[in-house]
UniProtKB/TrEMBL annotation:
InterPro entries in the cross-refs: Circ_KaiC_arc, KaiC-like_dom, KaiC_dom, P-loop_NTPase
Keyword ATP-binding recorded: yes
Name used for this protein in its record: Putative circadian clock protein, KaiC
Organism: Archaeoglobus veneficus (strain DSM 11195 / SNP6)
Domain annotation KaiC: ranges: 2-228
GO molecular function: ATP binding
Keywords attached to this entry: ATP-binding, Nucleotide-binding
SUPFAM superfamilies: P-loop containing nucleoside triphosphate hydrolases (SSF52540)
Length: 228
C-alpha cells in the first residue's frame, strides 16, 4: 500500500509508514494540543519530498503560518514554489464553500498537488446550520476524493468527548482519525499529552494512546512508551 509519511517518525511507525495515499484524516484535539503543528509536519514532509502541497487555513494568514512553521525549524519559504497557502475568512464562509466547490478541484489539478492541510474545519462548520453542515462536509469530501489528494483536516474536540470532533460529523466523512489529548492522572498533576489513532481504514493499528511532546522541533511521538 502506498503511504505518505507524516514526517513525525513515531507517528509514522504507529501507522505502519504513514497515511495511506488518498485518505482523508481528521486530527482532533482541544486547543493547544498540537493539531496545527501536526498538519505543518505533514505538509513540510511533502515539500521536502518534492511534492506540491496546499494549506487552506480558516485561522491564520500566510505570514503567520510560515512563522509558526519556522518556529519549529521548518523552512517552508524555501519551498514556496511548491506550496499554495489560502486563507479563507470566517465571515465569508458560505462564499468559501462556493469557492471551494468551484476552484479547489481546478487548483489541485493544475498544481498536481499531493497533500492538503485544512486547518481548522471547526470555524467552517460553525457557520452552517445543523442541516447544512453534513452536506457541506460531504461536498468537501467528494472534492478531495475525486482529486485523489491526501488530506489532513484538523478539528476542535467535543468538550465532553476528546475523541469526537466538535460537531461529531467530521469523523464520518474521514478515512482516519487521530486524536490528540491531555491526559490527567490526577487533578494535582501536570497533564500529559497522548496521541491515539482512533480510526484508519485499511491499516492495522493500535488504539492505545501514546505519549508525545511539543518542542522547538515540533511534535515527537514516543510510540514504544506508555503514558503512565
Ligand atoms: N516553538 C515551540 N516550542 C515548544 N512548544 C511550542 C512551540 N510552539 C508552540 N508550542 C506548543 O504547541 C502548542 C500549540 O500547538 P498548535 O499546533 O498550535 O495547537 P492547536 O492547533 O491544537 O491549537 C502550544 O500550546 C505550545 O505549548
Ligand atoms: Mg491550531
Amino acid at each position: 500500500m502506498d503511504v505518505l509519511p507524516t514526517g513525525i517518525e513515531g507517528l509514522d511507525r504507529l501507522l505502519g509508514g504513514g497515511i495511506p495515499k488518498g485518505h482523508i484524516v481528521a486530527v482532533i484535539g482541544s486547543y493547544g494540543t498540537g493539531k496545527t503543528t501536526l498538519g505543518l509536519h505533514f505538509i513540510y514532509e511533502g515539500l521536502k519530498n518534492d511534492e506540491t502541497c496546499i494549506i487552506i487555513s480558516f485561522d491564520e494568514d500566510e505570514k503567520s503560518i510560515l512563522e509558526n512553521a519556522s518556529s519549529f525549524g521548518m523552512d517552508m519559504e524555501r519551498y514556496s514554489d511548491n506550496l499554495e497557502i489560502t486563507r479563507l475568512e470566517a465571515a465569508e464562509i458560505k462564499e468559501s464553500l462556493r469557492k471551494i466547490k468551484s476552484d479547489l478541484p481546478e487548483v489541485i489539478k493544475s498544481l498536481n498537488a499531493s497533500r492538503i492541510l485544512i486547518d481548522s474545519i471547526s470555524v467552517f462548520e460553525t457557520l452552517f446550520s445543523e442541516n447544512e453542515r453534513y452536506r457541506a462536509l460531504a461536498a468537501l469530501r467528494d472534492i478531495l476524493k475525486s482529486a485523489g489528494i491526501t488530506a489532513v483536516i484538523t478539528s476542535e474536540a467535543d468538550k465532553n468527548n476528546p475523541t469526537s470532533s466538535k460537531y461529531g460529523l467530521l469523523e464520518y466523512i474521514c478515512d482516519g482519525a487521530i486524536c490528540l489529548k491531555y491526559i490527567r492522572e490526577s487533578q494535582l498533576e501536570e497533564p500529559k499529552l497522548g496521541i491515539e489513532v482512533v480510526k484508519m481504514r485499511r491499516v492495522k493499528h493500535s488504539r492505545k494512546p501514546k505519549p508525545y511532546n511539543i518542542t522547538e522541533k515540533g511534535i515527537e511521538v514516543f510510540e514504544r512508551e506508555e503514558i503512565f
